[in-house]
Each structure stands twice: as C-alpha cells, then as structure tokens.
Amino acid sequence: MAKRGYHHGNLRQALVEAALDLIEARGPTGFSLSEASKQAGVTPAAVYRHFEGREDLIAEAALQGYEIFADVMQRAFDDGKPSALAAFEATGRAYLAFARRYPGHYIAMFESGISVNRTPQLAAASAHARGILEQAAYNLSLYLPADKRPPSSMFSAHILALSHGVVELYARNSPGTASQYPPEDLLETGIGIYLRGLGLLDADT
Amino acid sequence: MAKRGYHHGNLRQALVEAALDLIEARGPTGFSLSEASKQAGVTPAAVYRHFEGREDLIAEAALQGYEIFADVMQRAFDDGKPSALAAFEATGRAYLAFARRYPGHYIAMFESGISVNRTPQLAAASAHARGILEQAAYNLSLYLPADKRPPSSMFSAHILALSHGVVELYARNSPGTASQYPPEDLLETGIGIYLRGLGLLDADT
DNA sequence: TGTACATCAGTGAACGCGCGTTCACTGATGTAC
DNA sequence: TGTACATCAGTGAACGCGCGTTCACTGATGTAC
C-alpha cells in the first residue's frame, strides 16, 4: 500500500477503505474527510477528484456494502438450496455474519444516517438485497397450505427485523448491554420458534 | 416558556427539552450545544452551570427516556394484567408506541452512541426497563409445561429484538425504505406467529 | 420593614481547533506524430 | 526512438465556519440581622 509517487494509482478505492476503517473505529460521527485522506496518504483536496464530498464518500461505502451484502445473502441462500427451510435459516444467519465481518460497511449502511434513496444505484442495491431474502421466504412459504400462507414479503420482513434487532441490541457493543446469550443463539432460537409458529417445523424439533 | 429576566428559572430542563427537539429534528449528529442553548434563550456558556458538557446533556436526555420507557412498559404490562398473554403483547407494542411518541428520547437512547454504562444511573434505568419486559415474559412462560419452558430472559430478548428491528427498519424513516405493511401490523403478526411457535396460541388464532 | 451581603445563574468576549471546501498550481502519464 | 503536448491526479495554502469550552464579570435572588 506504499504510496508510489505523485499519482496514487487507486485512490478512489483507497479512500473508501480508509473511510470504512475510520467508521468502524470511531462510528459514523467520528469520521472526517480530512482524516480519511490523511490515512490514504493524500491531501484532503485530492478527495474531490473522486467524490463530490464527504457524504458522497460514505454513500459509496454503503453501496459497496449493499453489494457484498446481497452476495453474502445469495450465497447463503444457494448453499441451503436442497431444503428451502435450511436456505431460509441460513439467509437469516448471514445477516448476523455480515454485520460481524463487515462492520464498517454495516455501519455505513444502517447507522450512518445516509438515505438509501440518495441515489438510484443505492436504492437498487438495497432493493436487490432485500429481494433475495424475499425470494427465500417465498420458496419456503410454498410448503404451507395455500390458505394459511402469509405474504412472503411480510414474513421476510419479520426475519429481517428480528435479525436486525439482534444485531443492534446484542451484537454491536454500542448500547453496551451484552445479553447473557450469544447473538447467534438468540437468532437461531428466535427463528426456530417463529418457523414453528408458521407450522414449518414440528413441535419437537 | 418566555424568558423571565436574567434568571431562567428552570434552565436545566429547558436545555434537555431543546436537546430533544434538535435531536428529533436533525438526528444525534446534527445537535450542538450552542444551538440547544440558543433555543433555550441562553448563552452557550450557561449550559456549563448545569451540565459537564455536550455528552452529559445527551446522557440526561437518554436517562429521562429510559425512565419514561420503563413507565410506559410497566403501564402496558399492568393494563393487560388479567391475561399474561395480553400483557406480553401489550408490552411489546408499547415499544413501538414509545418510539413514535418520544422520538427524541428514543434516538438519544438507542442511536446517539452514548453508552448505557456511562453512568450507574443510566445503567440502572435501562436495566429496570428491561426487567419489566423480562417479568412479563416470565409470567407468560408459566403457562408452558415446565420441561418446554424457555428461559424467560431469552424469550423477552426475542421480543425486544423483533420490536427494535421493526422500529429501526420500518418505523423510523432513516433508512428510507418504508415497508408495504404498517409497522404495527408487522409487529403484531410477528409476535403472534412467535407465540404460536411457543405453543401459547392455538394454531387457528 | 429595611439594609448588607453571600450565593449563584447567567453574560459576552475570547480561544484554539478541525472541519469541508475552493483555488491556482504543478508534476506525472500517456499519446500523436 | 524522440519530442511536443494534452490530460489529469495530486499539491498546498487559504477561507470561513461553528463548535466546545474557559474566564472574569455582573445582575438577580434570598437570607441574616
């Protein structure tokens, strides 16, 4: 990563990565353009060759986050392919794994305050990710008798909300109160009980 | 609220309220000490007669939030007293109602980045609120056969996570993507399915 | 009731700081001939 | 291969700004006698 000379080579991406590091380390508030540029070994003014400004840089980080997120979800879904149920559970768990593994992206996406409607690209990326979860939910809902089948968008919204809540309250250290249960367990048992409530799992499972 | 003269009378609380207004309007980031003091009709320096600084003021807002929150939860719980089930559902719903009605407090508590461990008082207030939900969960769990009874703290954590996730993703406008379902419905159906999964509701309910 | 005085809540000017952003510039790169 | 030149990525100095915080101060309040 040593700076070569006058020209950086791949400053745009280097700035995004610096931003992600800083966001992860200090939260979305503690991040500044100047600092990101310094970390990339460059003058603050150089940022403006690649981004419109501070917000634009964060938005790019979030965009990349949504793309990775969609990827991760897709892969989790595919891995569980043989059983729609497994696919669904895996997709939910992937949420938690993503938050753990890409904390900078996660924060940029969900805690930085930038709106998903800031840009058509960003809206598309987020819609795409959500679509994958809904697809998993839809496939799963086919196992239910048609008259007891809830709309799959509702049912994926439940899983998404539960996952998000678990991450925010018990996985990220921000609110400070760790639960006595590991977030993974909390999520897994929660999803299990929920699916049983839908009639998709036996009462003894 | 007109300023009387040289002395304000109740500046401390006026500052907290100004802070809440600003936080609600602009998010935790957009809030500044100077602005809060201006809104309270007072010089920025006056703030230091009542608070140690910016963070301390936000912490006080969060503290008051936890107290109101605990109150609201307690009341919801009491109102559903005759049926433990009703009490539990009401307590969950109260979460959403709180976020809607006291957005400034809600943000100060959950989105401002101040840690609940900042102060013993703050930790106590938050523990107290959580305790109420756990109590509701415990009472409810007594309806289950002892061998199938999950720990009530786990089960209240599930409801809390679901509620929090619904609020963050679908009730607060920040991430920008409104669901097609009203958050109240999402939460109610979600809790319903979950409770059915626990065997606390008939399959047809 | 009236005066003296301690207490305390607010003033307002000043500070240093880091921020985001702009600007005219310059050094490096790559392409045309 | 060598030279001229356009393009473009980065510099560095400067800006105005609002912020949080400090300080010596002053005006109002309330209490003792």
Summarize the structure.
The structure is a homodimer of 205-residue chains. The first copy, chain A, has 205 residues and is mainly α. Chain A has helices at 11-26, 33-39, 54-79, 84-101, 103-110, 120-141, 152-171, 183-197.
| Main sheet attributes: strand count, strand direction, barrel closure of chain A | none
Which percent bin holds the helix content of chain A?
A: 55-70%
- Taking pLDDT < 50 over at least 5 consecutive residues as the criterion, the unreliable ranges of chain A are none
Rg of chain A, alpha carbons: 20 Å
Q: What is the H/E string of chain A?
A: HHHHHHHH
The CATH homologous superfamily of the largest domain in chain A: Tetracycline Repressor, domain 2
The CATH architecture classification of the largest domain in chain A is Orthogonal Bundle
Assess the beta-strand content of chain A as a share of residues. under 5%
Strand runs of chain A, count = 0
Global geometry of chain A: elongated
Identify the quaternary structure here: homodimer
Annotation field: number of helices of chain A: 8
CATH topology of the largest domain in chain A: Tetracycline Repressor, domain 2
By helix and strand content of chain A, what is the structural category?
Answer: mainly alpha
Gap from first CA to last CA of chain A? 51 Å
| CATH class designation of the largest domain in chain A | Mainly Alpha
Number of domains of chain A: 2
